[in-house]
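Supplementary Note 3. Input sequence used for the single-chain structure prediction.
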Amino acid sequence: MDQDVLASRAAVSRRRLLAVGGSIGIGTLLAACGDSADGGSATVTTNEGTTATIEPTTPAATTSSGTSAGASNDLVALLDEANTCSLAKEQTQGPYWFDVDSIRSDITEDRPGTELQLALRVVDAGNCDADGTPATVDNAVVEIWHCDAGGSYSGFESGSSGQGGGPPGGGESGGTTSDGEYSEGVQEATPTDDSTYLRGAQVTDKDGIAKFTTIYPGWYRGRTVHIHLKVHVNKKNVLTTQLYFDEELNSKVFDTAPYSSRTGRDTFNDGDSIYDASGLVTAKADGDAYIAAINLGIDA
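The predicted structure, written as discrete structure tokens, is reproduced below.
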């Protein structure tokens, strides 16, 4: 496995991360989002008494990989190309979800990999204009999590050690349920380590959009490339699903480092038992990075 992937996994502990990413209460953040409805930033006070500037759904103008300032506008354009009033398909949450309870737009931490800017628009599938344009849902919490370039999930690294890149260990549930700032009563797994990379949540803006900066997900045996996703409204889990990528794009990304250090991928979209084409994101290149977008229809 690529040494950058191995080295990065030990860099940030869950306790350290939560002190940064999980310290702002959801109520405070929702108020801040309302105050900055024009797209500007808002300053809030954290639970520790320090101040923080929040830009809930706006990535930086430029990034280390060269993502352009126009990527944000391009993401919205991608969403507009895919207007739909269809309900998103419910899919299994899988065995590796736990309530990381962290509101942040950049979930990368120090993961090596190809940068991915992801836009997700939550829409009310039962409330559409005559032309088929759905009504958007603001103040929903969109949460995503996925494996790193080496195929491991944060919180469950130990289960994958020495297993040839197979899926990490961990059960569907640890017998506990979530009780955090934005999730309540959802069955969760018990993490085996303190890492939290490639996990986090965002609050949708006045246009129903949440944006994330992450890396292109890797792969592990038995599953196609995917991102897990939940939508929470008033702490209620209203959607659990998975997102997918076109196989031509997967192959292109995996031919580059650090992904190219791993071989033996055995499961593709057409052979995955969970895959559903309704979860395919619309994606395109932006410099050395990629941008991707999808609309998520819920019953609001």
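Residues 71-81 form the longest helix (11 residues). The radius of gyration is 18 Å.
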